[in-house]
Amino acid sequence: MSIVCPTRRKVLVGLGGLAAYSVMPAHASQSALGTKKLEFYNIHTRERSQGSFWIDGLYQQNTLENFSHLLRDHRQNLSAPMDKRLYELLYQLNKTLNVTDEYHVISGYRSPQTNEMLARKSNAVATKSYHMRGMAIDIAIPDVKISHLRDAAISLKLGGVGYYPKSGFVHVDTGRVRIW
Which of 38, 63, 110, 117 has its CA 20 to 30 A from that of 52? Predict the structure, then answer.
């Protein structure tokens, strides 16, 4: 039995081939192809925004900026970048509910000043709210029962879900999974 030992040159050429392969352009997988679209209506400002926030594996910065503007703290007129995972959660929620209707936004981003003011008025407002980090949104969908919206959000297990039937909305966030 003979053992074949490659020469140093063959090893280097082989490694060079691997290096060249590693810098070749990657092709998008089938799962990365497609479009993710959302629609919003801000009940306080009466503004609407819709668009594809993700196309073929890439987030669309202009759409994300438009969404952040619509989801701004309307009391202070301040916006902040919203967590992209929140848009993914809302997209998955639409798919789970089998709807494409616009989300009616009760609250998106909240400045610390607004959150403090709301917390003074209600014990239902967390003093360290995910709204202040752009990681939460309070929503309703006009033709979807609030209880169905809540149940669908809980089933996703993508973050926190708060149920406010008397106020007519569901809170979802991208924090740890919890229900109230």
Answer: 110
Task: Give me the half-sphere count of Cα atoms (radius 13 Å) on the Cβ side of residue 82.
Answer: 34
Q: Give DSSP secondary structure letters for 115-130.
A: HHHHHHH-TTS-TT-G
**Backbone torsions φ then ψ of 23, nearest 5 degrees:** -100, 5
Look at the pTM and tell me if it is higher than 0.85. no
Contact 139, 157 (CB under 8 A): no
- How many percent of the chain have pLDDT more than 70? 83
- pLDDT grade, residue 31 (50/70/90)? low
- The structure tokens 């998955």 sit at 92
End-to-end CA separation in angstroms for the chain: 71
CB 177 within 8 A of CB 160: yes
Q: Is the dihedral of CA 145, 151, 152, 153 positive or negative?
A: positive
Which of 138, 135, 137, 131 has its CA nearest to residue 115?
A: 131
